[in-house]
Amino acid sequence: MSRPTQHHPTAAATAVILLLLAVSPAPSGADPDDERCLSSLQQSLSGLRNWSKASFSAPCEGFISHLQGVTCNNGRVYKLSLPGLSLAGTIPPDLSNCTNLQSLDLSSNALSGAIPPELSGLLNLAVLNLSANRLSGAIPRDLARCAYLNVIDLHANQLTGSIPDELGLLVRLSTFDVSYNRLSGPIPVLLANRSGTTGRFNATSFVGNKDLYGYPLPPMRGHALSVLAIVGIGLGSGLLSLVLSFSAVCLWLRATDRTATMPGEEGKISHLMPDY
């Protein structure tokens, strides 16, 4: 009885198999930067659904994500869109670890605290919408480092301070809205560029900030009143000075007249006058 023939791989076949194993990509895990970014967001915000450590440790499968509000592109977090979800908490600085992020929309929630200047590390960011929250503090001037920004929408918050002049250097910026905050000071000239017949951004981008002034906003009513008050004070002071000067002259003339008509002096004067 013959024994079954056993086929052993040749040396060449073994080499090919080893080569294929070497060049075949291993199953990719989450990008560590994205994982840190999403982990910090989950810890800072309350109200996120289906966000668990297991889910954000592997948020992307190519172009697909099973996380609420996350859009992926080639295995990286490309977009975070979480508007109107009643989210509370603060925006974490570590959000800047999502270095491939191009759109961040956390609008119409209940977020508080400051806008982290670390968001300037999102160098690919094109859309930043943090409107209709309770954010406070200043607008970070470092946002000007995000050279691809097309949209900055921060309206309906509680932001204070001035609008950074550096934001006017964002040449791609097509939408800018900081209305209904508590901003003060002049509107940067480069955000109110008067080139052509219209400005770069119109008044609706800036209204609702009591102490903000400059083109394209209309003149401040309180400021006009203060100018009128200054003019009135000047005119009043001049008039008072004129009245006092006139009164002093009148008193001097009366005193001179009394001196001229004193007894004894009257005879001298009549004696010198010629007879007619």
UniProtKB/TrEMBL annotation:
GO terms for cellular component: plasma membrane. PANTHER family: INACTIVE LEUCINE-RICH REPEAT RECEPTOR KINASE XIAO-RELATED, LEUCINE-RICH REPEAT RECEPTOR-LIKE PROTEIN KINASE FAMILY PROTEIN-RELATED. It is found in: Cell membrane. Keywords: Cell membrane, Glycoprotein, Leucine-rich repeat, Membrane, Receptor, Repeat, Signal, Transmembrane, Transmembrane helix. This is Leucine-rich repeat-containing N-terminal plant-type domain-containing protein. Residues 1-30 form the signal peptide. It is a single-pass type I membrane protein. The chain crosses the membrane at residues 227-253. It comes from the Eukaryota. The lineage of its organism: Eukaryota, Viridiplantae, Streptophyta, Embryophyta, Tracheophyta. It comes from Oryza barthii. Pfam families: LRR_1. Its main location: membrane. InterPro entries: Leu-rich_rpt, LRR_dom_sf.
